[in-house]
Write a structure and sequence with these properties.
The complex is a heterodimer. By secondary structure, chain A is mainly α. Helices cover 70% and strands 2% of the residues of chain A. Chain A contains 16 helices and four strands. Helices cover 70% and strands 2% of the residues of chain B. Chain B has helices spanning 2-5, 7-25, 32-57, 65-82, 88-112, 117-136, 148-152, 163-181, 183-193, 195-200, 205-231, 242-252, 264-283, 290-308, and strands at 141-142, 157-158, 161-162, 233-234. In chain B, β2 and β3 form a beta hairpin. The longest helix of chain B has 27 residues, at 205-231. The chains are: A mainly alpha, B mainly alpha. Chain B: InterPro entries: ABC_transp_permease (IPR001851).
Chain lengths: 337, 328
């Protein structure tokens, strides 16, 4: 969690500011450190209070609750770092799932369903990206429009029906395990997280995303083709939503009109909680992954303790508010008036 | 002709054309009763869009309105069903006060702690929605549990016009007054146009933002009661996803998400436009499954049209009220 490239990352606007000359405080002040502590505390509290929490099969099962969302959170983090956002991801997911269903019912071989989902997701992302870059529109407005459009098209195709009877291949990846205990979805998530971390933190392409987020105008003057980066990131987000659609559809074995309803907000919550600044220019993939694990631990512990699911939305919301407000309350120099 | 170039004129014309086109297919749609019904259906959206406008004008956004509405509405319904003797005015005041309190929480976090609006309201949205469940225990409050006068009020007619429309008219007038003639309203525009200048000239930003979100909450609380009473049922999922409809109405009405611009007329017309589409689809026998897709297309068309005359604005998507500060 503390590789060299991470220390070089600009600190989030919401971290406690580093104090020069006092190393411990600098380390404790890092957002990722706080998250790691939070994760350990949540894990231990769950382990002590919740019976069977530490059972490896339970732990493995718990990862299903967040793996698909976390896969979308990875490209979303990149988008938010470069000052854009995609509200339409749940719509893309629904439409991709419908595309899988249509393709399957029309006899497309099982092995080609993943490419179908990826193509659909990428196409949706391309539309978002073109609208944002070609017409210089704010992405929050564009994607509020396209989420309606994508989910609407999905429900036009579905009507009040549902697609079911998906091939075994999809169930293998959506519900299956490696060595009977490691969920495949979780492995996919870890692989993609590693890939995104390398690209964002160790390549010039990734560094330029920070540059765009910090100052788009300066980035353009520095010769970065800002709009091309934006377009690619929207397509990447769409593609990852397509992948998530393939996994989710395989896991629940059906496509329904309300599939993944409201996920955009959970995905964005993961990203923000991971220390990515909504103002752009700051954040790490490590932070996002830690936030995902922390949220997953808390909600899974609550569900094992038979706390109804809706209480988790309160916990998640409070966690988000407290984590962003705490640094301000502790160190905030309140501005006059 | 300046008035012809205004986007409000364009929007008003397209609403009239849309209504007439639908009327051509199905004459019943333009009957006075049907149009009055349309007006009543649009009221809640109009009222919420107007206060959302005040927030968006400051470069903010209130994603928690629908959850706030659900929580206030549920509490109003619970109050009415537990204490049927309570006077209606008391219940309405309670709903509005609850909404106001929830809105002020947003306003405090955004104004005084200077946290980003989108993140704050994302958080409170989850919390408020969850609290609806906690309060109700997940159970519905259905029409037979609520007193008759509680349910009847929104659609009761005064001088031939439903109470809902009177409320909306009053809110439109109030919003017009606030945005055009009150220092509070003008300050909101100043904050949205140039936050650092607004601070420099001494606008009390924290207090203004506190009350902008407070008003949005107040309206959500009032609409919470009206919604529950009108549809005669309160459940956990009330108005789920409605926050995006409210924001969409503002966007269609030409209120720039980049802050600083927006008119009362625009917000009203944006809300009416969405209401017309919603009411027209069943009349022209388009499957209701098309509703969402058409709404999306309309939003995109509206932002594309609006983008033409505002190339300079609208680049910053997630604005903050954070002043530039040195790190040291």
């Amino acid at each position: 969690m503390n590789s060299a490239d991470m220390t070089a990352t600009p600190t989030s606007r919401y971290t406690i500011h580093d104090r020069p000359g006092f190393r411990l405080s600098a380390l404790l002040g890092k957002w990722e450190t706080l998250l790691a502590l939070l994760f350990v505390v949540a894990f231990l509290v769950n382990g002590i209070l919740v019976p069977n929490f530490l059972d490896p099969y339970n732990l493995a099962d718990g990862t299903f609750n967040f793996s698909e969302k976390a896969l979308i959170a990875l490209p979303m983090a990149l988008l938010i770092i470069c000052r854009e956002i995609d509200i339409s991801v749940s719509g893309i997911l629904a439409l991709s799932s419908v595309a899988i269903g249509l393709a399957h019912t029309h006899g497309v071989p099982p092995a080609l369903l993943l490419p179908v989902a990826l193509a659909m997701g990428t196409a949706c992302g391309l539309l978002n990206g073109v609208l944002v870059t070609r017409f210089a529109l704010p992405s929050i407005v564009v994607t509020i429009g396209t989420v309606s459009l994508f989910r609407g098209l999905a429900s036009v195709v579905l009507g009040d029906q549902a697609f079911t009877g998906y091939p075994q291949l999809m169930a293998d990846w959506g519900q299956g395990y490696f060595f009977d205990v490691i969920p495949r979805e979780f492995v996919v998530l870890l692989l993609f997280a590693a890939l995104f971390a390398v690209v964002l933190h160790a390549t010039r392409w990734g560094r330029r995303i920070y540059a765009i987020g910090n100052n788009p105008v300066a980035a353009r003057f520095a010769g970065i083709e800002v709009n091309r980066y934006r377009l690619v990131l929207f397509m990447l987000t769409g593609a990852m939503a397509g992948l998530a659609a393939w996994l989710l559809t395989g896991r629940i074995g059906s496509t329904r009109p309300n599939i993944a309803m409201g996920w955009e907000l959970e995905v964005i919550t993961m990203v923000i909680l991971g220390g990515v600044s909504i103002a752009g220019g700051a954040g790490t993939i490590g932070g996002v992954l830690l936030a995902v694990l922390t949220l997953g631990t808390v909600t899974y512990g609550l569900s094992l303790a038979n706390v109804p699911g809706i209480y988790m939305t309160i916990v998640v919301g409070l966690l988000l508010l407290v984590t962003i407000a705490l640094p301000r309350l502790l160190h905030g120099r309140r501005v006059a008036k | 002709m300046n008035i012809l170039k205004r986007r409000e004129t364009l929007l008003a014309c397209s609403i009239v054309v849309l209504v007439l086109l639908v009327g051509l297919r199905a004459p019943v749609f333009v009957s006075p009763a049907s149009l009055a019904n349309l007006l009543t259906d649009s009221t809640l959206l109009v009222m919420l869009a107007l206060t959302q406008m005040l927030v968006i004008v400051t470069r903010g956004v209130d994603l928690s309105v629908a959850s706030n509405l659900a929580l206030s509405g549920m509490m109003a319904a619970l109050l009415a069903s537990r204490y049927p003797a309570l006077p209606l005015a008391g219940i309405m005041l309670a709903a509005a006060a609850i909404g106001l309190a929830l809105g002020l929480v947003n306003g405090w976090l955004i104004g005084w702690l200077e946290l980003p609006p989108i993140v704050v309201t994302l958080g409170t949205m989850s919390v408020y929605r969850g609290l609806v469940f906690v309060l109700s225990g997940g159970a519905w409050v259905s029409s037979h549990q609520m007193p008759q006068h509680f349910i009847a009020f929104p659609l009761t007619r005064l001088l031939g016009i439903t109470h809902l429309v009177w409320f909306a008219a009053a809110v439109v007038l109030a919003a017009w007054f606030v945005t055009r003639h009150s220092r509070f309203g003008r300050d909101l525009y100043a904050i949205g146009n140039a936050p650092s200048c607004a601070r420099y000239v001494g606008i009390p930003m924290a207090r203004r933002l506190l009350w902008a979100y407070g008003l949005s909450g107040l309206m959500a609380g009032l609409c919470g009661y009206l919604w529950v009473a009108r549809y005669a049922v309160a459940y956990t999922e009330i108005a789920y996803g409605f926050e995006f409809t409210v924001i969409a109405a503002c966007v269609i009405g030409g209120i720039s998400i980049a802050g600083g611009t927006g008119t009362v007329l625009g917000a009203v017309l944006g809300a009416l436009f969405l209401a017309v589409i919603g009411n027209a689809l069943p009349v022209v026998q388009v499957s209701p499954f098309w509703q969402s897709a058409l709404t999306g297309i309309v939003i995109l068309a509206a932002v594309l049209i609006n983008a033409r005359d505002g190339k300079h604005a609208g680049r910053q998507i997630l604005p903050l009220h954070r002043p530039a500060r040195s790190a040291a």
